Amino acid sequence: MYTIEKNLNKLNHNQPTFFLDPKEQQELRKKLKNKTYKIYKPYIDSEKNIFYTKEEPKIILYEIKTKIPLEHREILGTIFSLNITSELFGDIIITNNHYYIYILQSIAPYIKNNLLMIKNSHIELIEKPLEFLENYKKEFDSIEIIASSNRIDTVIARLIQTSRQNISDKIKNKEIILNYDILKNNSYFLKENDVFSIRRYGKFQYIGIKKQTKHKNYIIECKKYK
Question: What is the DSSP letter of 20?
Fold first, then answer.
């Protein structure tokens, strides 16, 4: 709740908010009620966005130049290791073996001076024009599984090919995030467009049940973020 109040206070003083994830955006909208505001979206279907009233926020797009392949979690983990909170940077984009990140201009010098290595390999940050990715659309791999239900522990167990007991352990260890909250209930039934992340396995979106099999199981479609 403190995050929402902090961002609401910024808007009341005609300052842009920090980067907000979809859940935070929804909560802030409820607080704003009839107040006039705009939303800055770095690209067409960006997840993390900034609310503002007058002047657009000042952000920077960096390309992460690297000689080795990187994964989203490796980039994210390195950024967090610099004691940078999630509100200070936007989406991490991986496309065609290129890597990009949006950050607030205010922390650009710190990022530039400290984000020097990822995965024990030297990297270089190259500033790109904000228009460079404005038409980018997220890329997914479509996955179909056969499961007995769309209960979240059942679906995840099938996705990562493990047991439901192992999924229960992951939930206890806070390794699964559902719609930007730590998952606490393993009996939750997934709804269309729910987003969930599994530590070390990536981020997924639940699309829905396509059909029932002859043996009364279900063919379920999910998308995995690239």
Answer: B
